[in-house]
Structures are given as structure tokens and as C-alpha cells.
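From the methods appendix. Each design record in this collection lists the discretized structure first, followed by the designed amino acid sequence. Records were kept in a plain field format so they could be parsed without special tools. The example shown here is representative of the layout used throughout.

RECORD:
C-ALPHA CELLS (221 positions):
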């Protein structure tokens, strides 16, 4: 059905406002919701076949919601209601490592750019969940989620842990793996060896200084 002479209107049910309107072969945006100004484009390449579309760009998390669209002419009317879901898979997570108390280390998994709120988990090599020490999720200025989750591990542990962040709508997950290898955190014996070496060098230096002082005093006599 040719729709080029019809009025085509998109609107938000939940906001009770106009998203985009096309009539008399041109756009009419005088009453468009301010949030959509400059972001909508009516695609009418196949309008003579009754196929039209509305592009919203750039998309925002707030664009998700209930919409309606209707075609209308003097002899025809058709309307449809639908819900649009907005979802984003964020950046690949990265791990920040810092010393904890005593023999512990603290690992923090960080990622940003998710919508809606993602699920974040720590897992051991067998895929079992590890309880986080802390977890924070906040919405940034762009409407997307920034997430952080921390876990505390024993410094002597020699295992692998993974941080998994999952978009539950898309069933997409992003993973980062950390191997608690021997080279990542020095063993206590290595620290003890270095400490012994430093103390030995200090003792040697003090002895040499003492001998030099005595030698100068002997020459003075």
C-alpha cells in the first residue's frame, strides 16, 4: 500500500508526546518532545510499498519504553503499539591489584558502558562463585552503568580467578582472567633473602666507615 500521501506519526505512550510526524510529504516536528530533537530521521525509500522506518540516533538509555505508530488518510487508519528495549554491552573489564592487610591482596574488577544494570561475578577455576568483598554500581552522565567489584585473596594462593560481567538481556558476557602465578607476588622467602642482603651490606658499610675513621686517627698521632 502506497503511504506517501498518508500521515505517519510516532509517539511515546509513557511520555505522552510526539516523537516524529510525517504528513503532506514532509516532516512536521513543531511539537516534538525536546529529548528527540535533532535525533530522528524518517526513512521513506520504500514508502510507495507501505514500508517506512524511523531512525533514532544517537540512541540513549532513556529511549527505551512504550511507543505507538499510526498511518492515517481519508480512507485508511492503522495503528500499532510496541515496546523498545535499549541495551548496551560495556567495555571489557580490567583488574586493579593492590596489597591488602597482612598476607592478603585486593583485586578490583572494573568496567563501564553497560545498560541495563549488568550482573558481575567472580569465579574460581571450577566455575564456582566467589563472594566479593565489595561491589558498587553507579549511573554515569551518559546514562550507562559503571561497575566495580573487589575480592580479597591470600597472597600465597596459586590459583586462577575470573571476573565475569554479563548483559542479561543479550546474554552476552565479558571475562577477564587473573592467574595468581609465582611471579606475580614474591614469596616470603624471597623477601627474607633481600632483607638479609640489605642488612649485610649495611653492616659491611658501617664496618668500613669505622676502619677508615680509626686509620685517620692513627695517622694524626
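DESIGN:
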Amino acid at each position: 500500500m502506497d503511504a506517501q500521501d498518508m500521515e505517519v506519526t510516532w509517539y511515546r505512550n509513557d511520555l505522552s508526546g510526539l516523537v516524529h510526524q510525517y504528513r503532506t510529504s514532509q516532516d512536521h516536528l513543531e511539537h516534538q518532545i525536546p529529548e528527540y530533537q535533532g535525533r530522528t530521521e524518517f526513512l521513506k525509500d520504500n514508502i510507495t510499498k507501505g514500508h517506512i522506518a524511523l531512525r533514532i540516533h544517537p540512541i540513549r538509555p532513556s529511549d527505551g519504553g512504550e511507543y505507538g505508530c499510526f498511518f492515517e488518510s481519508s480512507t485508511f487508519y492503522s495503528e500499532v503499539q510496541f515496546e523498545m528495549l535499549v541495551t548496551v554491552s560495556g567495555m571489557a573489564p580490567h583488574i586493579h591489584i593492590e596489597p591488602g592487610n597482612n598476607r592478603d591482596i585486593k583485586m578490583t574488577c572494573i568496567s563501564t558502558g553497560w545498560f541495563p544494570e549488568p550482573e558481575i561475578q567472580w569465579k574460581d577455576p571450577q566455575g564456582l562463585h566467589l563472594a566479593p568483598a565489595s561491589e558498587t554500581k553507579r549511573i554515569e552522565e551518559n546514562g550507562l552503568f559503571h561497575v566495580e567489584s573487589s575480592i580479597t585473596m591470600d597472597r600465597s594462593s596459586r590459583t586462577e580467578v575470573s571476573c565475569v560481567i554479563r548483559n542479561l538481556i543479550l546474554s552476552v558476557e565479558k571475562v577477564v582472567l587473573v592467574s595468581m602465578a609465582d611471579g606475580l607476588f614474591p614469596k616470603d622467602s624471597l623477601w627474607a633473602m633481600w632483607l638479609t642482603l640489605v642488612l649485610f651490606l649495611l653492616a659491611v658499610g658501617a664496618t668500613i666507615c669505622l676502619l677508615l675513621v680509626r686509620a685517620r686517627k692513627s695517622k694524626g698521632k
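APPENDIX NOTE: Confidence is low (pLDDT under 50) at residues 186-191.
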